[in-house]
Amino acid sequence: MLVEQPAHTNYNVFRLRDTTTEASKGISSSINPRGHVHPLRDSRKLVVAQVITRLDLGGAQRHVLTILRHLDRSRYRLILVAGESGLLMPEATVLPDVERFVIPSLQRAINPWQDVAVLCSLARLLLRERVDIVHTHSSKAGIVGRLAARLVRVPVAMHTIHGFGVDVGRGPVRSMLRWSERFAATMTDRLVAVSHRTREDGLRMGIGHLRQYVTIPYRIDDAARSCSIDQRRATRRNLNLNGAPTVGMIACLKPQKAPLDFLRVAHQVLQHVPSAQFLLVGDGELRDQIKTDIQRLGLSSRCRLLGWRRDVPELLSAMDVLALSSRWEGLPIAILEAMAAGKPVVAMNVGGVGEAVTDGQTGFVIPPGNLRLMVDRIVSLLQSPEQAVEMGERGRERFHAQFLGAAQMVEQLDALYQEVWHGC
Fold it and tell me: pTM here?
């Protein structure tokens, strides 16, 4: 049973006590060039803290859990710091040999006073736990986490860029976000990009320098299984899809993913393929507006809003095409899952989409915002199921060649930890 206790009376941080980890008592220490007291390099495990804003059911969050699942416990003492809520928190609590801390006030929304309190709590936590490497993820945790690490002179600070949301929008908010990322980059030893396009976008916006960047694309295991024909039939039967050609989108329902554009695409596709059905898998802040638009566009009998689901491979097996209408991305894990399932992908060419999907071979990449072309490409696949199957099979082959193997990805990250640690 999960029990929450204050980790320290002044921290506003909760330690989740349901794991077995080694205490860091009686450890000899030395001082690194930055003045931070840390254990002698060869005397014990490195203390690595993964810091993320929320443990929602998203790509960045699943990536963090994958890192924690695969890092070598004989070399690292592992810490996870996150905000209070999130659908993946129960999964995080059962990871063996991981110490978990919750900072309830660590939230996405910008709140200056609250963010200062988070900064102080996180800085105290890093200092008390004598963290050697801070590895941050997501924008808010990335900025606050790296600043906290600098304040208490943590030897190594790293940040994984899961996509830049600072290149959209206009006005002072966009300028502030860009400035914040540029400032945080000055406190970062390595910026880990999940795609080459992500690295190029960062450099174009003046975030960090080329020497700071390392590209480590996602690799996954859990979706790398195909469902049988019988499973596909059962899933389609449960969803009342019958023999209808089906298009799906798997995403958090937030502005970044542009799910309202997916509905507009669905409305237009139906003009050409009246029997088509659409599945929208995910949840988020735009759910109510999506429900309204489903009614307004006359999609009530054509589009199913399924919420978050754990049976993604089964849902993918029921689809004929995966679509993704995102405005920005790093490297969408939903696309990798679709490739693993042998499904063609039609997606906006943002972030690393074009590095995963080979245009015209495993699916189609669409110029950002070109909904008309997205409609045309989806219609062509629904009207030519043989072509869709061929593209899906080529996508599966590409997935196995380039994106299968979470352990291999974490080995690259492990090597980076060691390289930066021994060079600091």
Answer: 0.88
